[in-house]
Amino acid sequence: MLKGRSAIITGANQGLGKEIARAFAAAGAAVALVARDRKLLDLASQELTAEGPGRRILTFAADVTDEKVMKEVIGSTIKEFGKLDILVNNAGVYGPKGPLEEIDLAEWRKALDINVMGTLIPTRLVLAHFKANKYGKIINLSGGGATNPMPLITAYASSKAAVVRFSESMALELKDFGIDVNAVAPGALNTRLLDEVLAAGPEKVGAAFYKRSLEQQKSGGASMVTASNLCVYLASKTSDGVTGRLISAIWDEWSTLAERLPQYKDTDVYALRRITAKDRGFDWDVK
C-alpha cells in the first residue's frame, strides 16, 4: 500500500512508533525513524532491516521540540529519499502524575512541549514540501486523554485534546493543498506508558485508573498491529480525502472511511464536539 512512498515517524525506537515503522516498511515505504535514544534507534533499525531485504531505513537521534534539529532531519530525509509523503507524529509522554497542586510545573510544561509542540514543529516544517507537491499525509497520535477526563494525569489529557483540535484545524487550513491531517486513537496499549502508571502506583494516578491499568496489563491491552494498520491506511492513497478526523483503531470501521466519505464529509462524525442537553434527551436547552 505504501510502495514508492517515504515517511518520517517520531518516537519510533520503541512501542507503537516502532510498530508503525515496521508496518510502513512492510508496506513498501522508505522510513526515517526519529527518537532521542540513539541506542534504541540503532536496535530498532537493525531489527526492521533484518525483517525484509532492500528496505530503506534512516535513523535520527533528535528532539522533536528542537526546531533547528528537526529542520535538518526533514531536509536530510527529503535529500536521501528524494521526497517526503508522510509524517507520523507519535512521540509523546504522560508527564507528571498526581494532584495538580503537588506536581512539578516544569514537568507539566515539558509534557505539553513534547506532546503539542512536538507535533506542531514537525508539521510546520513539512508543509512547504507538501504544499509544493500538492500532496501529503499527516497522522497525529492522540489517545484516551483527548476524549476522556484523566484526573491526576492532567498534562497528558490536556495535551492530547490539543493534538486533536490542532489536527482538525490544520485539516481545514490545508484542505486546498491535497494534504490530509488526521488523529489516531490507538487504544489502551501495553507500552512504557503503562509501565509508568504501574510504577507510579494508585496514590499518584488514582485507585480506579491503577486498577484498570493492572487489568490492561493482564489482558495484553489493545493491539499495536491494529493501530499500525490504521496508520498504513491513512498514509496510503486509498484514504485520499479522509481528513480532519479522530479515528479509533479499535472501535471505528476505518477500512471503509474513504468509500463512505460522501456520507459524512460535511458532518461531525469522528470529531471532538460538545454534547448539549438536547443531545441526551433533556429539554431545558430547547429554544
Topology summary:
Elements: E1 6-10, H1 15-26, E2 30-35, H2 38-50, E3 57-61, H3 67-81, E4 86-89, H4 105-133, E5 136-141, H5 144-147, H6 154-173, E6 179-185, H7 192-200, H8 202-205, H9 207-219, H10 224-235, E7 246-248, H11 261-264
Helix pairs in contact: 1-10, 3-4, 4-6
Task: Describe what this molecule looks like in 3D.
The protein has 11 helices and 7 strands. It is of the alpha/beta class. The chain has helices at 15-26, 38-50, 67-81, 105-133, 144-147, 154-173, 192-200, 202-205, 207-219, 224-235, 261-264; strands at residues 6-10, 30-35, 57-61, 86-89, 136-141, 179-185, 246-248. The termini are far apart. The chain is globular and about 55 Å long. The protein has a single domain (6-187, 222-280), classed as NAD(P)-binding Rossmann-like Domain (Rossmann fold, 3-Layer(aba) Sandwich), CATH 3.40.50.
Quick overview of this protein structure:
This protein has helices at 15-26, 38-50, 67-81, 105-133, 144-147, 154-173, 192-200, 202-205, 207-219, 224-235, 261-264, and strands spanning 6-10, 30-35, 57-61, 86-89, 136-141, 179-185, 246-248. It has 287 residues and is an alpha/beta fold.
Global morphology: globular
| CATH homologous superfamily label | NAD(P)-binding Rossmann-like Domain
In terms of per-residue confidence, which ranges show pLDDT below 50 for 5 or more consecutive residues? none
Number of strands: 7
